[in-house]
Amino acid sequence: MKNYIKLICILCLLLMTPVYANTQYTLKVNDISYQLSTPLIERNDTLYMDLNELANILFTHVTVDEETYVLNFQDKTYELKANVKTVSKGIEKYILSTSPVAIDNKVYVPIELFEIILGKDNLDIAQGNIQITCPTLFSRNSDSPEEHTYIPSPYNLNNLPKHIMALSTEDTITNAINTAITNKDYISFLDNSNQTKVTNYLRSRLTFSPYNNIQVSYRIINTHTYPNQITDTVTLPLKIDFYGSTIRLKLGEDQWTYPTIWSTYYPKRSLADMDLQKSVDTTIMRALYEYYRNKHDLRDDKYFSPFTISSSNRTNEMLHDAYSISYRNDDTLKEYETSYTISIQRIHQSGKLHFVIDIISK
């Protein structure tokens, strides 16, 4: 009789314990398959994601203050607790359909949290597919071109170097400059005639905020197997020093020199004066783009342009088209080409520069 009562009690406890199961949903970020380290789980038609995985996708991180989990995104702070439906964003309160849950030292949140953070247009769930679209990130500090340091340059937008003229037509050059003026963009080209001035300017800034604290975040993508898949999002410190007048960068365990300078102009202000500060930033952004392209075996030969364009918004953004050549896991050796847009973003946070490299399927 006692054993029978024990059995009844155990069955009751099992019935009272929520059952969470791995789900068969496919996750895509920017329309690219995304492999999570911690799988999604599902219970009662609600999808849950590990909060740290959610933060990774958004290029941010989670901190813990006693029982409160804090996530910072786009200069906003989101606070939540396990087993509590309320999410706080400053004085604003949002109610989730179900509470976050703690399982095996991880906190899982309903995937609808993406809607609260990104807006409904950036999360789409349909027919077993989850699509998350990440926007350009917000820079807390403004970056006004009028506050930069400008210097005269022997080569400029009125007097381009011969190698730039040889790589393009006069109409293409004129259209690029006029478009940059209309959109209030920066325009850059390779020119080492001011290399010493640019590197000396950067050297003088490296011991001061924000250049003394630089981080880089990027998505790791497997471009060898078709279809390509993002396997992680990482954030690493970036260290910069010099080999003579050549910039040397160290990102995690990878170190390389970048021997070229991207002379940058703000044609809305002047076609002749080089923007010294933005030449530094653009050179770093181009070095990071080329590092990312090479690290992930991406190609951009058919999208070649002698100019690089970047926005002058609070977040400076540089876009480059690229593509991969990959193969299926079979013996056919058929090539599959996948096209992407690579976004390099410069975000000036409080006391820190954060460069973000995102990849978007075209």
Overall structural domain count? 2
Radius of gyration, in Å, reads 25 Å
* Residues in β-strands, percent: 35-45%
- How would you characterize the largest beta sheet? 11 strands, mixed
Helix content: 10-25%
Coarse structural class? alpha+beta
* Number of strand segments: 26
Write down the overall geometry.
globular
Uncertain stretches = 5-17
Distance between the termini: 68 Å
Description:
The model is unreliable at 5-17 (pLDDT under 50). α6 (195-205) packs across α7. The chain is built from seven helices and 26 strands. A hairpin with a 6-residue loop joins β17 and β18 (229-243). It starts with a helix and ends with a strand. It has helices at 2-16, 51-57, 113-118, 162-166, 170-183, 195-205, 276-295, and strands at residues 21-22, 26-29, 32-34, 41-43, 46-50, 62-65, 68-73, 76-80, 86-89, 92-95, 101-103, 106-110, 123-126, 129-132, 150-152, 185-190, 214-222, 229-243, 246-251, 254-258, 262-265, 273-275, 308-311, 316-326, 336-349, 352-361. It folds into two domains: 20-132, Copper amine oxidase-like, N-terminal domain (Copper Amine Oxidase, Chain A, domain 1); 145-361, no CATH class. The chain has 362 residues and is of the alpha+beta class. Residues 29-121 form the Copper amine oxidase-like N-terminal domain. This is Stalk domain-containing protein. InterPro entries: Cu_amine_oxidase-like_N. Residues 1-21 form the signal peptide.
